[in-house]
């Protein structure tokens, strides 16, 4: 979790664009047609995912405005990763143009590579992006995510989702309608690897 704590600060800087002030009256975060403002209701376009809506609702429950902003930035980054994962390889070249350049460059550098002058995203990179967005989403939403929001927002079937959740250490709660991330992650990962080796 130390890595993700550091990464969260990087995300906030990439999305928000400058160093956060400890005190502020008006906050706006803009990605393409989406504007988040704490002086009036958020303007959310119809193409936003259900997962993003849940994360944004969770962020707005925080009492401190600065924490609201930080979690909103992370939620926006998750939404961009979801959009990235839905892209076809042939569309990668000119994708995510409505995102801040730092966010776009970061995602392309981390999850794609150039092969024969073409940008590609292999299966391993896609899996890493999915694991990253899931853990970040868990952090924003107090370590719980609804199954319905995940299935409606991520291009994944239920069986594949179960496998990914076991890998990152999340388990069902409330009769299977939600997942809860178990902490610490290192201990859960060690248990999973041990079970895998015994098979």
Tell me about this structure.
By secondary structure, the protein is of the alpha+beta class. The protein has one domain. Helices cover about 55% and strands about 15% of the residues. The protein contains eight helices and seven strands; from the N terminus they run H-E-E-H-H-H-E-E-H-E-H-H-E-E-H. The protein has helices spanning about 1-15, 50-60, 65-85, 100-110, 125-140, 145-155, 160-170, 185-199, and strands at about 30, 35, 115, 120, 145, 170-175, 180. The strands form three sheets. Strands 5-7-6 form a three-stranded antiparallel beta sheet. Strands 1-2 form a two-stranded antiparallel sheet. Strands 3-4 form a two-stranded antiparallel ribbon. Helix 1 (about 1-15) packs across helix 3 and helix 3 packs antiparallel against helix 5 (about 125-140). The chain is globular, with a radius of gyration of 17 Å. It starts with a helix and ends with a helix. Mean pLDDT is about 75; it is low at about 1-5 and about 20-45.
